[in-house]
Write a structure and sequence with these properties.
mainly alpha; about 0% strand
Length: about 475
């Protein structure tokens, strides 16, 4: 007989001794019993040689011996190691023909093979058969079916199977980390109902550890589905587990709260962010901007929320204050925007450069340059805020809304002295204003615009040409009338 070449010298020694025992048994001339055949099969198993399984079965049959279930289980184990479902089917046929009843262990070898060949439907049918036969599956058998459901992202099926495992008490003293993978499958598949249902069981009841990536997926689902309670729990969990808070943790939380018009808690998130060392900004406030931009009634609720926060002697974040002013200006409520700014001291808010931006937007919409200059002086001179390129660019744009737009050059020169780069939008507005007025300084403005790296768009170029053509036509008509 062939000998086994193993990398493990210990296995090789054991196998050699086994064959020596078998040779000695043969020399006695005594017929083998079932235990001897099982011993021989063990030797073939160590050699990873399944070709003799049925030969041994036939030899036993000739001796009138029926192989024990232990023999078939070893054979099934060999079929699993070789990942050979055809071999396994043939072994099961021999097992059934020997009048043995399949046990939980028998089915376990079947499940392992099904897992390797990914036969989910067959595995589910097999679980039904076991239930009818009153056979309780092994923990690892059931687990292999759950893993298949997770692999195809059938999260509802995975959790249904997990519930069945709980009812069969299969998790007794066993690790439940498979729940995390099932939850991950649901999150990746945007299965919000599953996440909402099983968050508490996975995180609280079973105290299982989630990674930050999975938490982010769940946070986004909570935000998209207007569930501030779930979003809050996830953010709290991240903090409790020692994860460093980041901006991406708070945006879904803001989205969840604002979708329910709960502006008071929405605005309080900004304060929580600052406490966590994160500076709120316009980007993270995007869900609020969208909400206030589409819903005028929401603006009133946002204003009321800030008033309520102030009444509770709680701090109002300047970002929240500025958002309301921006929203009022965006929706054409220019006077209301300025009036709300007037309550800054009552709300214990210190306006900043972004407050000035928001107010100047209102003035630009209203084309009220005098009000804009007044607000600019108050915030810069009286309140001492440091002007930015955005502030001064908006002042340029505001001056361009007037018939007398000379003030635009004053603020443009101020930016140059402060070595600030004017925004493209203000140059765009200035060029159009100069072209419309047939101002000879147009050429210089276009040159400056290009010097700052701003391209002259096709639309702007067409506008300039149209104004120049209109000017030429006007001149020709004047000349013709003089003649």
């Amino acid at each position: 007989m062939k000998r086994f070449n193993s990398d493990s010298s210990e296995s090789e020694v054991i196998l050699e001794k086994m064959w020596q025992v078998i040779d000695q048994l043969k020399q006695t001339g005594e017929p083998f019993n079932r235990k001897t055949y099982e011993f021989i099969l063990d030797a073939y198993a160590l050699e990873k040689d399944s070709s003799h399984i049925f030969e041994l079965c036939d030899q036993m049959k000739l001796q009138g011996l029926i192989p024990r279930l232990k023999f078939f289980h070893k054979a099934l184990e060999m079929s699993v190691e070789e990942n050979d479902p055809i071999l396994q089917a043939k072994i099961l046929h021999y097992l059934d023909s020997s009048n043995h009843k399949r046990t939980a262990q028998t089915y376990h070898y079947m499940f392992v093979c099904m897992r390797e060949t990914f036969e989910l439907e067959r595995a589910l049918d097999t679980l039904d058969i076991m239930k009818k036969e009153g056979i309780k599956p092994k923990f690892l058998s059931y687990l292999s079916v759950v893993e298949m459901a997770i692999q195809i992202q059938h999260s509802s099926l995975a959790f249904e199977l997990l519930e069945n495992m709980e009812s069969l008490d299969l998790f007794k003293n066993e690790d439940r980390s498979i729940y995390v993978e099932a939850l991950r499958s649901a999150a990746y598949n945007s299965d919000y109902d599953i996440i909402k249902t099983y968050w508490k069981k996975v995180v609280v009841d079973y105290n299982l550890e989630l990674d930050e990536g999975l938490c982010l997926y769940i946070l986004n689902l909570a935000g998209e589905n207007s569930n501030p309670l779930l979003a809050t729990k996830v953010v709290q969990y991240l903090g409790e587990k020692g994860f460093r808070y980041r901006e991406c943790h708070f945006m879904p939380l803001i989205e969840a709260f604002v979708s329910t018009n709960n502006f008071e808690n929405t605005f309080k998130i900004f304060s929580a962010m600052r406490e966590a060392g994160i500076q709120p900004n316009k980007r993270i406030a995007t869900p609020i901007v969208y909400k206030l931009g589409r819903d005028k009634n929401a603006i009133g609720k946002a204003q009321d929320a800030l008033v309520n926060i102030a009444k509770k002697s709680e701090k109002i974040d300047i970002v929240a204050f500025n958002l309301v002013i921006h929203a009022l200006a965006y929706n054409g409520e220019n006077q209301a925007a300025v009036e709300f700014y007037g309550h800054a001291d009552d709300l214990n808010v210190s306006p900043n450069s972004e407050t000035l931006d928001a107010l100047l937007d209102a003035c630009i919409h209203a084309k009220d340059a005098e009000l804009g200059k007044s607000i600019y002086r108050e915030l810069v001179s009286s309140r001492g805020i440091s002007v930015t390129a955005t502030n001064l660019s908006k002042m340029v744009t505001l001056m361009c809304t007037q018939i007398d737009y000379e003030g635009a050059f004053t603020y443009l020169e101020r930016m140059k002295k402060l070595k600030m780069v004017p925004l493209q939008g203000c140059y765009y507005k200035l060029v159009k204003t100069l072209a419309n007025a047939h101002d000879p300084r147009l050429t210089l403005a276009v040159k400056d615009m290009k010097a700052y790296g701003y391209p002259i768009s096709t639309h702007l170029n067409a506008f300039i040409e149209a104004q120049q053509d209109a000017d030429e036509t006007h001149c020709k008509l004047g000349y013709a009338m003089l003649r």
